[in-house]
Specification:
The protein is an alpha+beta fold. It contains 3 helices and 11 strands, in the order βββββββαααββββ. The chain is globular. The N terminus and C terminus are likely disordered.
């Protein structure tokens, strides 16, 4: 396969969202912390080498739906939660997304193979992202690569290392050490965020967060609960990641 192609490491597409799900449009414009094409990791679960890191852009929410998000968030930073789906970078407006509560996300109801319930995965991910936002723990492209690895580990595994278990980074990349630090440090951290998923059956899915105290999207001005200055990994709401190509098509694994 050509090296021009970049593939996100993820699970298979999930079932269609319920009719009450809120609609959203996602538009990613580039890497959030600088060019991360060289930040490559090998994901043993799918035996793929991918470039990983945070992306930035915007997300616009349609009115209506049970989740209650509204308007457009600019400077949105996000990471992916799947291992096989893909999208373009810059992405253009990606319509037909659904906003689901993490506890209702079918891919986390044992379909990812780790045996956790969707609610438990959502809770653990909230701990990780709350920890990452504290004291600006993610500020560079390399640190965002580590956080993406940690996110995948939460989604596909139950331990606190990216080097063993169901999910593994098998190349021994330098990003592993900080990823493990994030997992261990967040294990007993207070979860200050409600976790949602931006879901599309044919594209990459992304994590979205909302302050659990105010019920507002985490935004540029920080949140009541998260210390300032909050890292842009959670500032501007969400999470997504590797598996896109700057004007080059990212493909699903085969």
């Amino acid at each position: 396969m050509s090296s021009q192609y970049l593939r996100a490491a993820t699970a298979l597409a999930i079932s269609a969202a319920s009719l009450s799900a809120q609609a959203a449009t996602v538009n990613y414009t580039g890497w959030a912390y600088g060019n991360s094409w060289a930040n490559q990791v090998k994901v043993g679960v799918v035996n793929e080498t991918v470039s990983a890191g945070a992306f930035t852009g915007s997300v616009s929410f349609a009115s209506g739906g049970e989740q209650g998000f509204s308007g457009t968030m600019s400077n949105f930073v996000s990471y992916c939660v799947e291992l096989t789906q893909s999208f373009y970078l810059p992405s253009g407006n990606m319509g037909a997304y659904n906003v689901l509560a993490g506890s209702d996300y079918a891919e986390w109801t044992n379909a990812n193979g780790n045996g956790r319930t969707a609610a438990a995965t959502s809770q653990r991910l909230g701990q990780l992202l709350s920890y990452a936002a504290s004291n600006s723990r993610v500020q560079t492209a390399a640190e965002s690569t580590s956080l993406q690895l940690a996110i995948w580990n939460v989604v596909y595994d139950t331990d606190n290392t990216v080097n063993a278990g169901l999910f593994q980074e098998t190349s021994g990349a330098s990003y592993d050490t900080y990823a493990n630090s994030l997992l261990v440090g967040s294990a007993n951290w207070s979860n200050l965020l409600d976790v949602y998923v931006l879901q599309n059956d044919s594209k990459q899915d992304f994590v979205l967060t909302r302050d659990s105290g105010r019920k507002l999207p985490t935004g540029l001005g920080g949140t009541r609960d998260l210390p300032e200055p909050a890292s842009w990994v959670l500032v501007m709401l969400g999470l997504s990641a590797a598996g896109v190509v700057g004007r080059r098509r990212a493909r699903t694994s085969t």
